[in-house]
Amino acid sequence: MKTSLTRRQALKAGTLAASAAFVNLPALFAKSPSYNAEFLSMTDEERAFYYFEGQEGVKARLFANENPFGPSEKAIAAITNSLKDSYMYPFDERAELQRKIAAYEGVSEDFILLGSGSTQLLMAAGVAFGMKGGEIVISHPTFDSLPKYAEGVGGKLVKVEVDSGLKQQLGKMADAVNGKTSLVYTVNPMNPTGTQVSGKEMRDFCNSVSDKAPVFVDEAYIDYHPEGLKASTISCVQQGKNVIVCKTFSKVHGFAGLRVGYCVAKPDLLAKMKPFSTGGFDLSRPAVLAATASVDDKAFLSMSVQQTEESKQLLYKGLKAVGANVIPSFTNFAMFPIDMNGSTFLSRMKEKGVLVRSWNFKNQDWCRVSIGRKDEMEAFNKALAQVV
Ligand SMILES: Cc1ncc(COP(=O)(O)O)c(C=O)c1O
């Protein structure tokens, strides 16, 4: 009895409603001329490059912005305890996680849409707002999952170049919005550049632009922002603006392999995304219970940010030693220009057991290095000094 009642409650809160939509996503994508089975931000070739047989020889895994300081002890205990009951769908537990996140974000439960990682929600938004030729204003470069999904269903991307300090140009992005704009996608702090804009700047941007088009703010790295959670645009959502805030447990919580993310927005905006989200059957029981244990674990979260900061200082020391001109980072990774072809640089670093990523934009090759444990940063610094 208890189960069916709480299931009904979950349905009421909208957590299961999306599963009723039965949208055939591959078929939808296949109709698009730019269909590509690889929608993640890494191609199969890139993934193969990072594969090490048995992971032997890897001294520093610094290519995916993972957080080796997590998950917390509480999250691990919750996972362990959840295993014996993992034959059951976590309906009640998922509803409880949704309640806990709503309380944490200061909104009601119907303002929350959960996903198995935020990529799933970026996909739902990319499809919902990119369909029918929707135009999406983005920064360039940016985290490209949502834009790729949007393009995959025939959406058009309107790219606004970052400035010389690799910061997003919010003024120019606002100018790019017009009657055809279906969504503005912004990331703060930004991946892959590591730059940030202040909370006030981003809120002012959201408040003015969201009257013309919905604004999607990807706050995957918001806990690393110098203003911390005060930099969030959640208050815009609380004030009823046309703003979708997206968060993930993959970064500061250290859940990249567990897969939990969520969006916070008015129910009418979430309703546009829900037909393309997997609804109530997406999150595993261990992931749900671990996230419930971790969501408001302030002591762990500040330890995680602090450890990252300590490793970042070590990284900066190594970069300074070789004269690298690092872009000040407000995330758990940093970017710096390299005087070498990106793939040559990656291969030489890999030979030393250090895995990083490279980009090319503004006619320049860049290395993006994730911030890991201290021993990993030491391995990175040593390899870098030999490679450059
Ligand atoms: C800006 C940004 N958003 C979203 C994600 C996706 O994270 P996940 O799907 O693990 O929640 C990432 C991953 O690196 C990211 O950098």
Automatic annotation (TrEMBL):
Q: Which UniProt keywords apply?
A: Aminotransferase, Pyridoxal phosphate, Signal, Transferase
UniProt-recorded Gene Ontology molecular function terms? histidinol-phosphate transaminase activity
Q: Which domain of life is it from?
A: Bacteria
The signal peptide, as residue positions, is: 1-20
Give the transmembrane ranges: none
**Per UniProt, what is one Pfam family of this protein?**
Aminotran_1_2
Sequence ranges assigned to domain Aminotransferase class I/classII large in this UniProt record: 62-380
EC assignment: the record states 2.6.1.9
Keyword check for Signal:
yes
CDD domains linked:
AAT_like
Q: Which family does it belong to?
A: Belongs to the class-II pyridoxal-phosphate-dependent aminotransferase family. Histidinol-phosphate aminotransferase subfamily.
The molecule here is called: Histidinol-phosphate transaminase
